[in-house]
Design brief:
alpha/beta; Ubiquitin-like (UB roll); Rossmann fold; 9-stranded mixed β-sheet; 3-stranded mixed β-sheet; 12 strands; elongated
Length: 263
């Protein structure tokens, strides 16, 4: 029995050096791979540089040169190692850029495709808002002319943009355009038309109240120029007229309006 144990120990001892050798070789291989990757990352931008940046897409507020310059400043590698995610972020940081995508084109080109934001209105005086409710603020106060003004807390932008688009189409059917639309923290809605009339819609049933105005607009305008139409009543509305306007329709609408409650 003692001889058997001695033989087993000898065999285990004889197998130990090859195992250690394999472990050392494995470590050397890993080290070689790390060093090789480091060397490749160091030399790849010189061996395979990005020589051309192509910008695609319909641009109105940014030049291709500005986008090329922005991406060039963020280049951190060659055609194989440059970080496309970081370059996408850099492109989308430009105020008018909504979406950007990049792809490598062998051997030395980057193709950049951008979509600019398309604002439907100004936002709170210092920004712009898209149909999706995305707010962006151009640098230097660069604002398109002729856009209506929407006003609310920023988190209400999607709701306000959707209401604006819906009400814009409904009011255009009777020949009116929206100049401004706002909702305050209490949920009180106000709408100003290009013709100079302010609609006070209140905090509830705003769709029905606007529909009430649209149905009555021809009679109102036949009677004169309304300055304020207060629709915050359950069964009617009150009208403040421009001076020298006929007040006959106002009296009728005031009586029906006062029969309800405002809110």
């Amino acid at each position: 029995m003692a001889e058997v144990k001695t033989r087993v120990r000898r065999r285990l001892g004889e197998a130990s050096p090859p195992a250690r050798l394999r472990a050392v070789l494995g470590l050397l291989l890993i080290l070689a791979m790390v060093v090789g990757a480091w060397q490749f990352g160091r030399w790849e931008p010189r061996l395979l540089p990005v020589r051309v940046i192509e910008v695609e897409g319909e641009l109105h507020h940014h030049s291709s040169r500005l986008l090329e310059a922005t991406i060039s400043r963020r280049l951190n590698g060659g055609i194989l190692t440059t970080d496309l995610v970081a370059l996408k972020v850099a492109a989308e940081e430009l105020p008018w850029v909504g979406r950007a995508s990049l792809r490598r084109v062998w051997p030395d080109r980057l193709q950049v495709r951008v979509e600019e934001h398309r604002p439907i209105a100004r936002w709170n005086g210092d920004g712009l808002v898209t149909a999706e409710g995305i707010i962006f603020r151009p640098r230097g106060g660069e604002m398109p002319v002729g856009l209506p003004l929407l006003g609310a807390e920023d988190d209400r932008a999607p709701d306000l943009a959707a209401r604006y688009l819906q009400w814009r189409d409904e009011l255009m059917l009777i020949g009116h355009l929206i100049q401004a639309l706002s909702v305050d923290r209490r949920g009180d809605w106000r709408l100003e038309l290009v013709m100079g009339t302010e609609l006070r819609l209140g905090t509830g049933a705003v769709e029905q109240r606007l529909a009430r105005f649209i149905a009555s607009a021809p009679q109102l305008e036949a009677a004169g120029q309304p300055l304020v139409v207060d629709l915050r009543y359950s069964n009617g509305f009150a009208v403040q007229w421009e001076r020298n306007s006929d007040t006959g329709f106002r009296a009728s609408s005031d009586r029906s309006g006062r029969s309800g409650h405002r809110g």
